[in-house]
Amino acid sequence: MEETISLKELFETLKKRLKLIIAITAVAVLASAIISFFVLTPVYQASTQLLVNQAKKDQPMISTNEVQTNLQLINTYNVIIKSPAILDIVKRNLNYEGDLNPKINVGSERDSQVLNISVQDTDPKMAVTIANETAEVFETEIKSIMHVDNVKILAKAELAENPSPIKPRPLLNIAIALVVGLMAGVGVAFLLEYLDNTVKTEQDIDRILGLPVLGVIATIDSDQLVEMKAKRTERNERRKRTRGETFGS
Q1: Total domain count for the chain?
Q2: How far apart (Å, rounded) are the C-alpha atoms in residues 31 and 28?
Q3: Share of the chain above pLDDT 70, in %
Q4: Helix crossing, 124-145 with 84-94: angle to 10°?
Q5: Could you read off the pLDDT of 148-165 as tens digits, one per residue?
Q6: Coiled coil located at which positions (predicted)?
């Protein structure tokens, strides 16, 4: 016979394992907060923008084909910016030791001739310096690499007064940890309930053994036992008084 579980049983399982669920969730949230605030190093980002145009021509209007060519050139420039031909000069100018490639991200808006150079670093001042130096070196070197003068710096990266890191995001991490902790706690609760094969109720006997239940021994706690004794004593006292009054009359 197919076994079914009612919503009442599900809620009873959650209620019974509520402390475990709360404990797992609290541990996940606490671990996320500690890692976000005290373990992970803040990373800052600085960005600069470049405008890509074709070389100037005598024609007064820019045709659609020229714009499309500029857009295709952007993909080439994305590769050139992160190539050793540019980054080696940036490192030499800044006396920088290490790999700049993973710190730099180059992209552009859809159907746009504007290039965005974003740099991430644990030092906000260094991120600004690398972004601006990369843009200036690229603007200079592209003339000899591609034999064109079609790159202009639109906006330089600037250091904010109180820069905010882009990662980690403690509140977001804690929120994710809260959801994951709840899911893990509920999962563990149902897993423990599934693995628990002890017989607790008469329904378990009927379900597991298929035997009818002839009787049930009620469970009486100490408070109920004391209350029952008090009531019994009170009844006995009442009976004694009743008998005494009967004999006296």
Answers
A1: 3
A2: 5
A3: 79
A4: 130
A5: 888 899 999 999 888 889
A6: none
Same domain, 187 and 210: no
Average pLDDT score, the chain = 84
Tokens of residue 93, six digits? 């100018």
Query: What is the arithmetic mean of pLDDT over 206-232?
Result: 72
Does one domain contain both 11 and 101? no
| Of 2, 9, 1, the residue nearest 194 (C-alpha) | 9
Partnered with residue 115 across adjacent β-strands are 50, 108
Q: Output the pTM of the full model.
A: 0.65
* Residue spans of alpha helices (H) in the chain: 7-16, 18-34, 64-81, 84-94, 124-145, 170-195, 202-208, 222-248
Residue 63 has pLDDT above 60, yes or no: no
Rounded CA separation 189/174 (Å): 22
Strand order across the 114-121 sheet: 104-108, 114-121, 44-52, 151-155
Identify the domain containing residue 212 by its residue range.
202-243
